[in-house]
């Protein structure tokens, strides 16, 4: 079970992801504003952050970049979950420090698999 913060401004997508990951045994909070999300992540220090790219306030990649600069949060795994695909978008996010990138629409099973893999990889990284 992981504590996850999902940053998504589309209420329906937020509810879907929250339900899928809750059914998989995780605790998921959904935040719909980038700036509020960054402040909440810094305070709560979740096990995983899932970010949309286009958000009110701070954009997803800006949140990611800021997290990678903060002591105590720079190793927090981040999965980008966004409708914006394409090689340039993926390269930008991965270059900013994303652990994985999943394009909407997605299969719920694929989301759970990716979340589990990112969490597992992060455990190995922290143990090194």
Portion of residues in beta strands equals 15-25%
Rg, rounded, reads: 13 Å
Proportion of residues in helical segments: 40-55%
CATH class: Alpha Beta
What string gives the helices and strands in order?
Answer: EHEHEHEHEH
CATH architecture: 3-Layer(aba) Sandwich
Spans of at least 5 consecutive residues whose pLDDT stays below 50 are none
Keywords: DNA-binding, Phosphoprotein, Transcription, Transcription regulation, Two-component regulatory system
InterPro entries: CheY-like_superfamily, Sig_transdc_resp-reg_receiver, WalR-like
GO molecular function, one term: phosphorelay response regulator activity
Organism: Sphingomonas psychrotolerans
Overall description:
- It is a single chain.
- With 128 residues, the chain is α/β, with parallel strands linked by helices.
- The chain has a single domain, classed as Response regulator (Rossmann fold, 3-Layer(aba) Sandwich), CATH 3.40.50.
- The chain is built from 5 helices and 5 strands; from the N terminus they run βαβαβαβαβα.
- It has a 5-stranded parallel sheet, with helices on both faces.
- β3, α3 (60-67) and β4 (78-82) form a beta-alpha-beta unit.
């Amino acid at each position: 079970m992981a504590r996850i913060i999902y940053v998504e401004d589309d209420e329906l997508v937020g509810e879907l992801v929250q339900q899928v990951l809750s059914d998989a045994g995780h605790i998921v909070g959904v935040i719909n504003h980038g700036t509020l999300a960054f402040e909440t992540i810094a305070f709560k220090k979740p096990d995983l952050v899932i970010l949309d790219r286009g958000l009110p306030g701070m954009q997803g990649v800006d949140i990611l970049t800021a997290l990678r600069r903060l002591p105590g949060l720079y190793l927090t795994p981040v999965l980008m979950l966004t409708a914006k695909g394409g090689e340039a978008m993926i390269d930008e996010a991965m270059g900013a420090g994303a652990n994985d990138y999943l394009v909407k629409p997605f299969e719920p099973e694929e989301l759970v698999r990716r979340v589990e893999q990112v969490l597992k990889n992060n455990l190995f990284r922290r143990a090194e």
